[in-house]
Design brief:
Length: 286
């Protein structure tokens, strides 16, 4: 007799996560956004994550649990009318999450957002490509940063990546509502497709031959490719990039947490494109 399947850990952690045995890929690289094999609704908790979801008309809501104080805070922001909440005590939410989850009296179940495909990303878009970054805290922080810099898409693989629920969503602090995620089966093929569409693919590598701030980005699309901490970019990913670039650090510590590296890289890329556009406009006026 087969032993019963262990329950999925709350909060979206990769540790101990099981997948449906009958789950099948959703065909090609034109996937919906996260979650790809999540058996049930997306779980969002914490004020910022829940408030941004409630404010997003594209997010389909299923169930909201809230304490009286947390609901009053939502009401003050005009966000308490989209769904009838279940008024609960904090312990009722505690029992649904891991012990270290800071839910601030809010727990929301919702459907996953539909995302773009590689073909629908704007041709002049700014894209982040994640090469097997598996820590949900890091990916959540990257999503939050991507939303702040108006990134057009985050491209990652359907496997070897955390689901956009629980811990990741909390770390993203509402960023999931604003940073579209594109899931692909094969990262190298996805990079090839971006290259065919004219994207400059720049792999971030501490041993890159030139600093990122010296890279010529042009007017077309830019894809910044980040690897996992410790392992960095995989060999095939490196070979698929147009160039490798580094972030120069003047201090004694030469490497950064991947989410911090993403923030700096996005700032440099945005600034370079702004300066390039301003220079082109100035030349046009002369």
């Amino acid at each position: 007799m087969r032993p019963p399947r262990p329950p999925r850990p709350a909060g979206g952690s990769d540790a101990g996560r099981w997948k449906r045995r009958d789950a099948k890929p959703r065909g090609g690289d034109q996937h919906r956004a996260f979650p790809r094999d999540h058996d049930g609704p997306v779980v969002l908790y914490g004020h910022h994550s829940v408030a941004e979801a409630l404010a997003n008309p594209r997010r389909k809501l299923i169930r909201l649990m809230a304490t009286e104080n947390a609901l009053a805070r939502l009401a003050e922001a005009g966000l308490a009318d989209r769904i009838t909440p279940e008024i609960v005590r904090p312990g009722a939410i505690d029992r649904l999450l891991t012990p270290d989850a800071v839910h601030q009296g809010l727990y929301l179940e919702a459907e996953a957002l539909d995302g773009p495909t590689l073909e629908t990303i704007p041709e002049d878009g700014l894209v982040l490509v994640l090469d097997q970054i598996t820590d949900p805290h890091n990916v959540g922080a990257i999503v939050r940063t991507a939303a702040a810099f108006a990134v057009d898409a985050i491209v990652t693989t359907a496997r070897h990546s955390p689901e956009a629920t629980g811990v990741l969503a909390k770390a993203a602090s509402g960023g999931l509502e604003h940073a579209p995620i594109v899931l692909v089966q094969n990262l190298a093929r996805a990079l090839d497709k971006l290259g065919e569409r004219g994207f400059v693919r720049i792999g971030l590598d501490s041993d890159g031959p030139a600093p990122l701030d010296e890279a010529t980005l042009g007017k077309g699309g830019v894809a910044l490719v980040l690897g996992a901490e410790g392992k960095g970019l995989r060999q095939l990913t490196r070979e698929t990039c147009d160039r490798l670039a580094r972030l120069d650090m003047p201090g004694e510590i030469r490497s950064l947490n991947v989410s911090n590296a993403a923030a700096i890289a996005l700032y440099v890329a945005r600034r370079a494109r702004t300066v390039s556009a301003a220079g082109a406009a100035a030349q046009g006026l002369e």
